[in-house]
Amino acid sequence: MSAGTVKSMGRGLNVLFAAAAAVEPSTSTQIADRLGRNRVQVSRSLQSLETAGLLTRDPSTRVYSLSWRLRTQATRAARARLLVEGPAILREAVEATGASAFLAEVRGDGSVALLEDVPAGLSWVGRSYPLYCDDAGQALLWDCTREELEAVFAGTEFIAYGPAAPRGVAEFEARLLAARERGYAVVDGESEPGVFAVAAPVRDFSGRIVCALHTEGPSAVLAPLVERHGEVIKGLADRLSALLGWRP
């Protein structure tokens, strides 16, 4: 392969990555300005990428976005990397906090652990727990608006599994807003009495929340350490997000 061909491929990939990294679909002019490159050259690269089926362009707004084919492949790759990198992140969380650590995802209106590092106790992998009071619930619904929360919990009965469990959507939303302000969620006595957790969302390359990293342990031991543990879990969740391709 000639040096010129390699250079051309590199420029095309830079354009593809710039289109993929945009928060919203972008025009060729916006992408060229972001890259600081000639608009005509970038436009040609975008057309080639569209022809190859890697990008799609809206005929009315003329904005480019990742094709569903490429997005599907990228999602599969991110999932595979999550399963590879997750255990090391969980191990670090356990070493830093002394608590059990989990990666959980949304399934229906419940939270299910997909990976865990539990020094002692029963495994939670594959077991579902209601999102409204689960240790990972707030982190998993981090980006939801009030309307979206209403839809998620439309058929949910808010049973008090723990003494501090939220009694409805409004109470859950208030705790979620406080968690966003803090940077991580704190769940104390919601899933069951005396159980304490901190949690933070994990995002993939598109910015979508794919899972939550959280700890779990006795309130009497973990509650006094909440600020330190919260920063640890947020930092590890952000690092895992970066490994999955997320760039804020």
TrEMBL record:
InterPro entries: GAF-like_dom_sf, HTH_MetabolicPath_Reg, Tscrpt_reg_IclR_C, Tscrpt_reg_IclR_N, WH-like_DNA-bd_sf, WH_DNA-bd_sf. It comes from Streptosporangium brasiliense. Residues 68-246 form the IclR-ED domain. Residues 6-68 form the HTH iclR-type domain. The keyword Transcription applies. Keywords: DNA-binding, Transcription, Transcription regulation. Pfam families: HTH_IclR, IclR_C. It comes from the Bacteria. This is DNA-binding IclR family transcriptional regulator. Gene3D superfamilies: 3.30.450.40, Winged helix-like DNA-binding domain superfamily/Winged helix DNA-binding domain. One of its GO terms (molecular function) is DNA binding.
